[in-house]
Design a protein that fits this description.
Layout (H helix, E strand, L loop, with lengths): L5 H11 L3 H17 L11 H10 L10 E5 L7 H7 L4 E5 L3 H14 L4 E4 L14 E5 L4 H8 L6 E8 L3 H14 L2 E9 L8 E9 L6
Parallel strand pairs: 1-2, 1-4, 2-3, 4-5
Antiparallel strand pairs: 5-7, 6-7
């Protein structure tokens, strides 16, 4: 059983509610088979809740009800599976090119009974036209100047990118602004999620996309 502090438990209860047990089972998967198969480093086990699961789950506050969310480079399901557990109203498509990760993700989805998750084994650029997402998420995939080209096209001209970033978020936006504009991004901002729940809130880059002629 992975230890959880009182503060982490309080945050988890607020985010996951009656689905907290599913979140705990997911964390156990990360700590056992997830580390055994190299999806997450063994040194991360003591901070799975704070640094990974809660850090990802709080971005649910930035996502509208009943959205179709595509998670690019889903890896160990961060943030995709966190969102699927916290928000059963969301439809999640996890996009992951590596077979071993896809197999693990499917095992976890099956064990948790997450019927709002679809897993695609492909690269993000190859999924364009196969996914019609309202929101695209990503974490630790690439610098924003490159990530914009992997995420924005999945929106088919309208929607939002919600990318988890670190303290260099504003700097990344500055470097990527021309690429973002070219791809249809009309507004890019830094959003902080989980300030009232986490000791270290999550920094997100939000890109609003609306190409000319496209409507909701």
């Amino acid at each position: 059983m992975v230890d959880i502090t009182a503060a982490e438990l309080e945050a988890a209860e607020k985010i996951f509610g009656e689905r907290l047990d599913l979140a705990k089972r997911y964390v156990e998967h990360l700590a056992t088979s997830g580390t055994e198969r190299g999806l997450i480093g063994p040194r991360e086990i003591p901070r799975l809740w704070s640094r990974h699961v809660l850090n990802c789950a709080v971005i649910e506050s930035a996502i509208a009800m009943d959205s179709h969310v595509a998670d690019v480079g889903s890896g160990a399901g961060l943030p995709g599976l966190c969102l699927a557990i916290a928000r059963p109203d969301l439809e999640l498509t996890l996009i992951e090119p590596l077979e071993r990760r896809v197999i693990w993700l499917q095992e976890v989805v099956d064990d948790l009974g997450l019927d709002n998750v679809t897993i695609m084994r492909t690269r993000a650029e190859l999924a364009v036209g196969m996914v019609d997402a309202d929101v695209v998420t990503a974490r630790a995939v690439s610098a924003l100047s490159n990530l914009a080209g992997l995420t924005i096209p999945l929106l088919n001209g309208h929607g939002e990118v919600v990318a988890i970033k670190g303290r260099s978020a504003a700097e990344e936006i500055e470097k990527a602004k021309k690429v973002i504009r070219k791809l249809g991004g009309v507004d890019t901002s830094v959003v902080v999620c989980g300030q009232e729940l986490l000791e270290e809130p999550t920094t997100v880059v939000r890109i609003i996309v609306n190409k000319p002629g496209k409507t909701a």
